[in-house]
Structure formats: C-alpha cells, structure tokens
C-alpha cells in the first residue's frame, strides 16, 4: 500500500545528503587560465569577462602566489601580443625572450611548484587571427604543426611542465611529441585540446587576446576548417583516440556545458585523464545574468562545475576557479 523504498530518505537533511553525495568539486580539480600582457603594473579588466584581468608579469607573480595560497596548483598561460609583433607564421611565438617564455619563468620564480601549462597555437601571434599559417585561403596543416613543435620546445626550455596545443591541426601531437623527445624533454607533458569545437562561446576570449580572425579577402573568416562541427559526436571520439595514439598525456573537450554528452562518452572510452574547458562565453553568460540579478551566481556556478565533474572531467579549466574557492572557504 505504501512504498517500501523511499528515495527521499537519502535527502532528508544536509548531513545525509553530504554523506551520499557522489561528486564533490575541490580546488585540486582546477586549471586556472591566465591572460598576460607586456608592460609593468598592468591589471586590465576584460570588458566581456567581468572580474577577469590581463596581467603584466609583475602582477602575474603576485597572482600565482595568491592562487597557491588558495590551493590552486595549476595554471594555463595565454599571452596578448601587440599587433606589430604579429605575422602570418607566428614568428614571435618562438622568441626565447618572448612574453610567454618570460611568463613561464616568472611563475616558476614566484612559485616553483605551481604546475605550468602553456597554450600552443598561432592565433595570438597571427596577423590573421588564425591558429595556423594562412595561404591561398587555407590553413596549412603540416607547416603549422612544425611551428607548433618548435613553439612547444621553446616553452619546455623556458620551464613549462605541459604544453597544451589548442589548434586542431592533424598529426600535431606526434610532431610535438617527437620534437620534445629529440630535444631531451621526455618529461614535458602534452595536454591536447583533442575535441575542440568551432564554438561561438569563444568570443570574450578573443576580446581578451585581441585574437579574432580578421575579416579580409583571402583569409577564412572562421575556424571551421580545423575546429570541429558542433553537430558531431563520433568525430570527437576519433579525434581524441588519435591524439592519445600520438602521445597525448591528457585530452580535453571544449567548450564545457553544451558538450557534456561528449565528455561522458570520451570518459567511458579512454584511459587517460580527461580535461574540460569551461570557456569564456560560459563565464560571461553567468556573470551577465547575475549582474542583472537574474541568476544566483554562486549557486549556478557550483551546479555547473559539479555537472562538468559528474560528466567525467578529471580536470576543469575554468575562469571561476577563484570564485569557487571563495565560496567553499
Ligand atoms: C585559441 C584558443 C581559443 C580558446 C583557447 N585557445 C579561442 C579560439 O579557438 O578561437 C578559447 C578559450 C575560451 O573561450 O575561454 N587557440
């Protein structure tokens, strides 16, 4: 007459809910993206990313000490490059005294145990805002992979622990792995953006780095010939498996929230750690809605981060890392 099994018994109090909770996000899960600029004493707020900043290297040192204090132990570095240093081949990316190379050293100087991952792609250095070299309205695959391999070695020389190729060229993981091995960087890891979709959620990031594809003749206006079509699922598995076979230590799915079906599927198939990038547009949406008073910022943030982890993420790259730590401390 009455139900013998009442699932609500396990929900009667916060104490029992905590006891049976399956997924708990902790500071150890986070990879913190950081945006760097030249100059001194610079801390510029990114207009489409409230409370997120571009930092000069002196402020980077302060920031990583603060992150470390908060229990955040891994950073993912991006640089904003002035237009006069940009060209089609991303030459500045290989400068041993370039901003990225100096940033890696600055982090290690401020906080030797902080794990440093670096973005590897040409877009911040490209006069066309593309992740690879442009020729004849195309993005050149193999020529780009060669530059990315040199860039990776340059980051490894500066002290990066992991390189994170975000470009989606075919075969670049193998090219990068071989270059690292040949140069003696056996222990430098590769976190591959293996299933990276051509997403409209990257807008604020491109504002942050001034890296959007330019709108001129003979240059593709978007990244759809290399980033994945968001309608595709099987292709994500294929891309990810290939990157693992080529030597990726960690694979990544990007963006986060709209792609959690892909995260779960990949997590069920692969035996390497899976990272998810909760991207700039996802951050901007919640900041905007909460500024308007339409969403409860901290509650929605926690729900989203927990959902990403529940879907199978071992690592979450997120602009909410510090907000998260503040809410739990
Ligand atoms: C570029 C790169 C992008 C992001 C990370 N690396 C943007 C793009 O592909 O245009 C996006 C991250 C974000 O939106 O937070 N290689």
TrEMBL record:
Q: What is this protein called?
A: Delta-aminolevulinic acid dehydratase
Q: Does the keyword Cytoplasm apply?
A: no
Q: Could you say which residues bind Mg(2+) here?
A: 239
Enzyme class (EC, first level) = lyase
In Gene Ontology terms, what is a biological process of this protein? protoporphyrinogen IX biosynthetic process
Q: NCBIfam families this protein is in?
A: PRK09283.1 (NF006762)
Superkingdom, natural source: Bacteria
Alphabetized UniProt keyword annotations = Heme biosynthesis, Lyase, Magnesium, Metal-binding, Porphyrin biosynthesis
Active site annotation, chain numbering: 196 (schiff-base intermediate with substrate), 254 (schiff-base intermediate with substrate)
Q: Which GO terms describe its molecular function?
A: porphobilinogen synthase activity; zinc ion binding
Family affiliation: Belongs to the ALAD family.
Subunit and partners: Homooctamer.
Q: In which pathway does it act?
A: Porphyrin-containing compound metabolism; protoporphyrin-IX biosynthesis; coproporphyrinogen-III from 5-aminolevulinate: step 1/4
What Gene3D superfamilies does the entry give? Aldolase class I
What catalytic reaction does the record list? 2 5-aminolevulinate = porphobilinogen + 2 H2O + H(+)
* UniProt cross-references to SMART domains, sorted A to Z: ALAD
The UniProt record lists the EC number as 4.2.1.24
Q: Does the keyword Metal-binding apply?
A: yes
Tell me which species this is from. Flagellimonas maritima
A GO CC term attached to the entry? cytosol
């Amino acid at each position: 007459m009455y139900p013998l099994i009442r699932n609500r018994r396990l929900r009667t109090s916060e104490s029992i809910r905590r006891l049976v909770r399956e997924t708990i996000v902790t500071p150890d899960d986070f990879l913190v993206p950081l945006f760097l600029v030249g100059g001194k004493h610079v801390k510029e707020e990114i207009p489409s990313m409230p409370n997120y900043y571009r930092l000069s290297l002196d402020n980077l040192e302060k920031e990583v000490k603060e992150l470390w204090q908060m229990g955040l132990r891994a950073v993912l570095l991006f640089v904003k490059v002035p237009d006069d240093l940009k060209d089609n081949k991303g030459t500045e990316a290989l400068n041993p005294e370039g901003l990225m190379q100096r940033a890696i050293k600055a982090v290690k100087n401020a906080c030797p145990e902080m794990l440093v991952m670096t973005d590897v792609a040409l877009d911040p250095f490209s006069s066309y805002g593309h992740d690879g070299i442009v020729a004849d309205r195309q993005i050149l695959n193999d020529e780009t992979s060669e530059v990315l391999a040199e860039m990776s070695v340059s980051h490894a020389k500066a002290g990066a622990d992991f390189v994170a190729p975000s470009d989606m060229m075919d075969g670049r993981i193998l090219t990068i792995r071989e270059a690292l091995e040949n140069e003696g960087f056996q222990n430098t890891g590769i976190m591959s953006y293996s299933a990276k979709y051509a997403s409209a959620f990257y807008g604020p990031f491109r504002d942050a780095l001034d890296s959007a594809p330019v709108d001129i003749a003979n240059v593709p206006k978007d990244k759809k010939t290399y980033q994945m079509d968001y309608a595709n699922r099987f292709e994500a598995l294929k891309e990810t498996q290939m990157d693992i076979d080529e030597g990726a230590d960690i694979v990544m799915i990007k963006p986060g929230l709209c792609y959690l079906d892909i995260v779960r599927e990949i997590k069920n198939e692969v035996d390497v750690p899976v990272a998810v990038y909760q991207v700039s547009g996802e951050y901007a949406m919640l900041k905007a809605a909460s500024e308007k008073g339409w969403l409860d910022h901290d509650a929605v943030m926690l729900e989203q981060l927990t959902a990403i982890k529940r879907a199978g993420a071992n690592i979450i790259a997120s602009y909410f890392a510090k907000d998260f730590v503040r809410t739990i401390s």
